[in-house]
Sequence to fold (1440 residues):
Amino acid sequence: MTEHPLKPETKAMLEKVSVATLCTVMYKRGLRNQVIQDVHPLSQKGKNMVGPAFTLRYMPAREDRNQLIEFRNPKHPQRHAVEMCPEGHVLVMDSRKSAYAASAGDILVTRLMARGVAGVVTDGGFRDAMSIAQLEMPAYHHRPASLTNLTINEAIDINVPIGCGDAPVFPGDILVGDDDSIIVLPAHLAEEAAIEATEMTAYEDFVLSKVKAGASIIGLYPATDEKNLAEFEEWKANRS
Amino acid sequence: MTEHPLKPETKAMLEKVSVATLCTVMYKRGLRNQVIQDVHPLSQKGKNMVGPAFTLRYMPAREDRNQLIEFRNPKHPQRHAVEMCPEGHVLVMDSRKSAYAASAGDILVTRLMARGVAGVVTDGGFRDAMSIAQLEMPAYHHRPASLTNLTINEAIDINVPIGCGDAPVFPGDILVGDDDSIIVLPAHLAEEAAIEATEMTAYEDFVLSKVKAGASIIGLYPATDEKNLAEFEEWKANRS
Amino acid sequence: MTEHPLKPETKAMLEKVSVATLCTVMYKRGLRNQVIQDVHPLSQKGKNMVGPAFTLRYMPAREDRNQLIEFRNPKHPQRHAVEMCPEGHVLVMDSRKSAYAASAGDILVTRLMARGVAGVVTDGGFRDAMSIAQLEMPAYHHRPASLTNLTINEAIDINVPIGCGDAPVFPGDILVGDDDSIIVLPAHLAEEAAIEATEMTAYEDFVLSKVKAGASIIGLYPATDEKNLAEFEEWKANRS
Amino acid sequence: MTEHPLKPETKAMLEKVSVATLCTVMYKRGLRNQVIQDVHPLSQKGKNMVGPAFTLRYMPAREDRNQLIEFRNPKHPQRHAVEMCPEGHVLVMDSRKSAYAASAGDILVTRLMARGVAGVVTDGGFRDAMSIAQLEMPAYHHRPASLTNLTINEAIDINVPIGCGDAPVFPGDILVGDDDSIIVLPAHLAEEAAIEATEMTAYEDFVLSKVKAGASIIGLYPATDEKNLAEFEEWKANRS
Amino acid sequence: MTEHPLKPETKAMLEKVSVATLCTVMYKRGLRNQVIQDVHPLSQKGKNMVGPAFTLRYMPAREDRNQLIEFRNPKHPQRHAVEMCPEGHVLVMDSRKSAYAASAGDILVTRLMARGVAGVVTDGGFRDAMSIAQLEMPAYHHRPASLTNLTINEAIDINVPIGCGDAPVFPGDILVGDDDSIIVLPAHLAEEAAIEATEMTAYEDFVLSKVKAGASIIGLYPATDEKNLAEFEEWKANRS
Amino acid sequence: MTEHPLKPETKAMLEKVSVATLCTVMYKRGLRNQVIQDVHPLSQKGKNMVGPAFTLRYMPAREDRNQLIEFRNPKHPQRHAVEMCPEGHVLVMDSRKSAYAASAGDILVTRLMARGVAGVVTDGGFRDAMSIAQLEMPAYHHRPASLTNLTINEAIDINVPIGCGDAPVFPGDILVGDDDSIIVLPAHLAEEAAIEATEMTAYEDFVLSKVKAGASIIGLYPATDEKNLAEFEEWKANRS
Fold:
């Protein structure tokens, strides 16, 4: 998992591209299912969440194993994961796509932020969602959920491969979240994806400026008319 | 379809009534299923979207027909529809009620706006949703969707009758969207609906002013007490 | 149902605790299903909705019994409920978890507010949702719904036990709604829940201040380390 | 409810027509939602279930009110309903469309049969479904469900108007179930529906015999070609 | 569409392989979504349904266009499609994945059979399902549906590309249905798929005989151990 | 996990009681969620499946890791699990509740049977379901699924705690499946559950015989009338 650490320059590039553009980059490589479905940010942050995945897996709760007393165990996987998730990483929770009960609340999420974690993601829901929305650290979920997670879920595994919102997440994969969605970049592809998405974003910016000025998309997007590519080169030169 | 063009005075009336009121007007005529279900505006515009429908139909994608190279075809139906949708019309997409992948993104939607289109609607989702939300032209969808539409959908037909959010949409039907929902008015009923809804809206405004002042709804809404109708006439006279 | 009226001091306490905290209080008593699922406030109010439940039950509509003329009946259960719901109570509607058509609109909700009702809840949707969102009285639903309720629902029973968002609601139960969710407190448990939640909230505030200052949650949340309880007592003393 | 008792000759007719034909009869009268959706017979009986509805309403269970001890109460609504449902009636349960837990099991259903009840219907599921399938009395549900009903449901009301599979059911309505589905005939329409469906069935039998012999459906179904009506009269005369 | 007619020898091969095997053949070619989801045979036929697709597209019904009188129109698309579907073809209906109302009933299906059609498929439901189940011609649906199709659907297009159970279906594609599911083979791939699946089936038969005799699947399925391929050749020689 | 092996006498008892009865036994102990939801037998076997759980966990598939070549790896977890599952155990698969693609097919299931495995369970679907239905070994799934599992799932973990149909399954838990459903008995409770269910079954048999003979359920089920308990003792004595 540590074979492909996230380089600072890759991270910088990933902070400036959209998830949509990264989706197209993945699509070219045959990866079509890397978006965490039906999960969105609790509040808009104006910049991307970027970081390697650190995972927590929930399974259905059995009542005798999930009384409140369990939280007194210092090694309870949910609490333990919050203390273990490395700085700069994103804690990603497989909550079995259910927001009937919460995946975590504002105390745990505040602790993650205090520890320097880059963000937190669940395919379930957070309790105290409105407080979490006001934190600086980005958080993503399906919808608010007030019941304690013990009601339906038992935290069972830390940092194993999981599904989140029907997307595959391996520990160390690079998560990029914008105001719309989150994409999971396989660790070994993050760098090339960042570079390619950066290039595509420049062209998309050029296209958008042309479209705002009245240009047709035919021949321009994609650039089937060579003239547009030439004009793009000029535009880029002028911009920098 | 062009037998019932949208008159400017009808459009002006439809801009000032709510979708809820138009629903009641349609209900009186036995039409109970004209609201596009589970689709909402990306941002509030403070005024209604009104325009005739121009449609795009998606079908499930077959992988060999839906590689990125398809977009290089100037007649690709999605791109073609964006260039063909007439000024003042609303582009309505049957995305099979799935927001797993996007129906369109900010470049296409910006192009629609530049071309003078009145709005864009999908029962799936838009990518770059947060950018689209900031455009002046109204856009409606189910939720943000970052994957390229090719992932699950192939644009197959332009301007045929479709379903959108389980409502029937015929080319030329008049769409009216407010901050809550969109209703599909059959073209031949749009004018009478506009007139009737305008009258109903006046009475509803009167009712609301009475209710705010402490009146009971019994006898007032609906006006089973004749006195209220008389008072309404007076109120109208005073207002104008 | 009137055996357990809501005391003013209980109400005051319930206005200051979160639904999440109350969920944990109920969980300790073996009640795990008291949150109204998938229902949220139309707008944030900055304070809790608190009041005893007054209920309305909908059943599927049969067309011959649900024409617009029905509303002319002064005893139509929907209209009647709006006029009957006692001041300070919350009108809770079992809309069969469907937002295909509306549970009510802005006129009825404004009337409820004028009558001093504490709030209104449906597991379906409101029409004129954006107007309702701007009222001072809190309202909770699943999503906007523009069709008239007659389209799918017939109001059939007033103030009987119902389900709302899969939670059991008995007339007189105490509803507490914050910006995330609503919990249904059985009437006989409301007072003890308010007291216990108030105590827990104090400790959670203490925890949050510690976590913001860099403390680990282990030993602190829950307080397995006695030192934290001592420090909490001191913190409470200082705060008051 | 007793204003429209089921006459023996109406019952006899309803035993010989299909639910599909009755749907068309109701459709002509503007009733489009009378089929209990997604509910089917546990086993094929080779003849229709016909009888007036006697209803039982479930609401979501609250744990403190739904321990096994409740069944010791001789007036527990579920057990009481089983003993009260009149001979020849159909017990219809509103189980909130959930088969997570059972609506009843083989002992209660056997008791219903012993008491001369005409059938039993739930929009949830039965436990001991395979035993119930072997009883002579027809039973309809969504799917087998082994958990005790207390797990999610509390029986709360006997013989009130309910929804079942999203269809409206009033006590005394006539239920007709065949191997496909169940339709709910409003009590006052049952007789005329029986007569009309009987006539339609004769014509459909005629059509089917013609189609099997190679006839086109155009002009025949419906009978837009007068010749077919004449031929039908002859066919009927020959048949009797 | 007629560029790739179904050859008799291809048809013969497709009658003897399973849909599962054909799925693997398609998977090798990058086609992963060719199974019509959540649709199954009304009864087991003991042999495959094989034939080119002839399609019918439904859209949501608007009440004023969908009264029973519409069926008197000899060109009503549903009735017309039944008379037009060529012998040996399969009529495939896009019913928008809803079995709330019927896609067709026993008269139309019997007419299809009388005309020599190879089968009928809907992603909704059939009325008179138990009668249709007893016909010799195979029929596939989601579940029985007794309401007339006019209740929710309007037949709008004949023989256009459609979605059925989320799979893409183009007129002329070859449908193969067994007791489990239906796969849609793109017309130009049907022949090669038939050949490849036939070969795979032989090997799978060999594997199954070995497994029944106690062999491990490792090295055998797939044949990573060369010895198994040699043994297979011998087995084939012996079998013929 | 091996602390609570399944004793032969416990197994013998569990073969003769229903899942419904075991549900009530678990309910008494506060365990309400032990039934694997929406999963049923491919065919009725006339006797219960009983055995300790051996588990396989699937996660969402990433395309580059899930090509057909993966099956050539002798340690591929799906194939490996089939060879490792101990005799007398039940292989239980967490297929993320999706039957879009298959969890396994007839070759693997036949191999399990040949190895003496007691049964196989998935909350997804099997391909070649009709062949599997004819095997002697019981198999349970949601519905047939023909696509290869690689299409959506990657087998990732063997014999870890999983969810199956929203029920918690720990390796070594005792699964009991009848013609309706499967229940998961925590290993340490299996013996006492077997004993208690056996006793309850005797009483239920007695009740059923009384009900068939015309007895009311009041006082009998449950036995609030002491007379019935006395009669039961006699009945038991006579029966043996």
Summary: The first helix of chain B runs from residue 8 to 14. The mean pLDDT of chain B is 97. Chain B has two domains: 8-188, 193-239. The domain at 8-188 of chain B is CATH 3.50.30.40 (Glucose Oxidase; domain 1).
